[in-house]
């Protein structure tokens, strides 16, 4: 099994290596790939030393699976070239997510859209993944009508430059040239994730709208979101107000979520038991709690979701897709 990791030196790329090792993914040849400035350097994985390759070299080695986490422009240019040599490409960027003929996959929900001819597969946005993991079983039971989402997203979701900005500000060495955000992130909250578009929402907010509908296969769900960057390293959090078409019962909702694969219910608020991003850090599961009736509106609840954005929000989900491809003997 020849597996390429494209963007291997980045935060998600390194987390992919860690998850692959944890699940003992069947790799006979690891092909690390990165930008020109990293080509020829080495990295260690599972006690061995590996040379980092260029895109061209990696394609010539004909990997069977390529896990991409190198940004949208890189994916648009290179992912089709990997596909041309028969490789399954699992792409973590936003480049292909809303293409109608490219599946957007969270394995616990819609792995059935993958087949042996599905060579290019999109990994959803990190904040979308943890959201739909909770929504999907509830949608099946009660049918979603409307979502109001507020996110509290770790600066790690922006990558190493954001980590550098946070650390320099924390250490009292802030300078404008170090900033990847328009404002300081240390001890601050920034109501902007990604860039603003014509409707005055950010790309991140509209990703949650469009990707949720695509994954749940329901274009009628009404969704609005506000995405906020916060000075947290553990993961992303989301406050979600959910209106259903059908009458809901809180204890039944808790029972459904408690029995949902990949979801951990943490809901005993009087004992201060509820999810936090620090508790989600380095976990592959999605944590949910603070489940309660919205007393202002019928058939509506509020809940709180946390997940490690670098794991289930990115690396873990991508590796799970690769595992599905192998388990289905598509390779």
TL;DR of this structure?
Helix content is 32%, strand content 23%. The chain is built from 10 helices and 13 strands.
List keywords for this structure.
alpha/beta, Rossmann fold, Dihydrodipicolinate Reductase, domain 2, 2 domains, five-stranded parallel sheet, 10 helices
What's the number of structural domains? Answer: 2
Structural class: alpha/beta
**H-E string:** EHEEEHEHEHEHEHHEEHEHEEH
**Low-pLDDT windows of residues:** none
* CATH third-tier fold name of the largest domain: Dihydrodipicolinate Reductase, domain 2
Under the CATH scheme, which class of the largest domain? Alpha Beta
Helix coverage percent: 25-40%
Number of helices: 10
CATH architecture tag of the largest domain = 2-Layer Sandwich
Distance between the termini: 9 Å
Mean pLDDT: 97
Described by strand count, sense and barrel closure, the largest sheet is:
6 strands, mixed
Q: Tell me what portion of residues adopts beta-strand conformation.
A: 15-25%
Oligomer: single chain
**CATH homologous superfamily of the largest domain, by name?**
Dihydrodipicolinate Reductase, domain 2
- Please give the order of strands in the largest beta sheet: 9-8-10-13-12-11
* Gyration radius, rounded: 20 Å
